[in-house]
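Posting this for the archive.
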Amino acid sequence: MSWTFKIFIGVFGFGLAVQSIYTAGFGVWDPVFHRPIILALGFTLAVFVFPLVKLYPTDQRAVRLLFLAIDAVLVAAVISAAYLYIDVGEELENGLFELDVKVYYVAFAAVLSLLELTRRIFGLPLFLIGSACLIYVLFGEYLPSIFHHAGYDVVTAMEDIWFTTTGVFGLPMAILLNLVFIFIIFGTILEGTGAGEVLLRVAFAATGRTRGGPAHAAIIASALFGTMSGSVIANVVGTGTMTIPIIKKRGFAATFAGAVEAAASTGGQIMPPVMGVAAFMMAEFTGVSYLYIIIAAAIPAIFYYASLFIAVSLEARRLGIEPTPVAERIKLNRKDYFYSLTFLAPISAIVTMLIMGRSPAMAGFAATITTVVAAFVLPEFRGDPMRLFRSLIKAGQSCSTILIAVGTLGIIIGAMDLTGLGVRFAQLVGDVAGNGLFLALLLTMAACLFLGMGMPTVPAYIIVVLVLGPAISKLGVPIVVIHMFVFYFGVLSAITPPVALAAYAAAPIAKSNPMFTGITAVRLAVIAFIIPFVFLYNPQLLIISEATGGNFEPAVFAWIVVRLSIALWLFTTALAAVDRFILAKWSRVLRFVLGIGLLLTNPTLQIMALIASITLLCGHHFAAKRKIAQTNSAGSL
């Protein structure tokens, strides 16, 4: 990449990051100016990061000049359309403005530019959905049946998609600029300071006595780092480069090592307090406090990581892997405890600010400032303070890419709002599912996993909520529960084949097959595919009043926790094919059946499954003790 591109990337990236920090700490600008200006800035930066000459290298000068000219046209279209949006200004609120027809075609060119850049950055899935929605607006009048609408021209389409606060510059864009950017910057700075290395050392020291050893360390480190970074791929690469080789060295298969890192890194988005950027979207869309959202997410996240921890222990037992030898274990000293402030202090800052009732944006601002201050305890950071500058540039780039995704999401929302596509699709889903909640949930799960393939969690989550959320809410499900359900499966798409982005990121590090790595990650994370159904039928698991109808019952909550805990053990041991010893096929099948029985809604079946499960597990425990006694007896002879 030429120095010209690097300079522009540095200037634009640094500027985007600094304005985001300022906005979080000192308040937002007037939205009429803020949103279009930042979109133009972010779009220009993204074009410099993903230029055609970089994506399609060529030695032909004429072709390179053509590529540069195309990129210049794209940037000019978005900047011009952003200026025209500002020019309309205050008149946007009442919709009373009249523009020359050419202006709408400039906006149309900007929309096409957004779609093109989306294709470059995120591939085909989000691009195809955005393009399909735009085509549907313009040509839906020629479609039959439920998909037919009255027909809209470019002028009408752009009035709704560009020159309103419901399309490109709508609520998702506002949430992104006001809340999400600061946490992206926080995570990137945290990574750049070297705090991740300290976190890994602490994780290795904490798990040295366990059979899983480095695999357990990967789970802990990925949970903590993932909840702060919010990026699955960054989490896999950031922690996996150190953990995966050591996991393999301890005797685990390469596929298993990559799958553990992929599953653990993916779970970082569902682990409070940050939970990736989608949690902020959820708080805004549901009208529920962000603090309540992270409280609701806590118990399911604990179950998810407990299942991963157990799965690793069982695999180690199956392979006969013993805990790390004492001589090889990492021992923490006073310096390590002091250095741990680099990641403990920012987390404490977030939690403290939220408990004090401050906004999530202010919590992110406090965490970012705390991260920078705490980083000075690290000699590596003090010796190279330019790390902060490089991190800010990288953060600006990350913000620009998610900005493009949310811009395309605005195109989709605008199209749905104009044509009523979301309502039509919800009606279709309702007709297919009838009054059956379970079938509607299966359709929602499939939509989340499909849309999430190769797409960031935020667009996948919002699209499914807009399209399928109304259909499920008609079946009597609280809105917070619906959003959490969709959010979970949007996150899990990162490890679900055939795309499985987290598995594809971990596989090269592990030197394993990406598809097999994804399949193994799904097996390890199977409880995460079950938990959303559990809390949807048992909202008490989410604790908060918005999910429980204002009637949280500790006894009911405890009953759910007991059943889910035993089911977790049954499912995990059945998939691992080992408990205290290798399981027979009949035992594995029976464990699956009993696990499902524990989670059914029928109280009688729950109790019967509980009794049968306890009987089975106790019988297995005593059989294992007899085997050990017989082995010891034979050994003494």
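The two ends are 73 Å apart (CA to CA). The first helix runs from residue 3 to 26.
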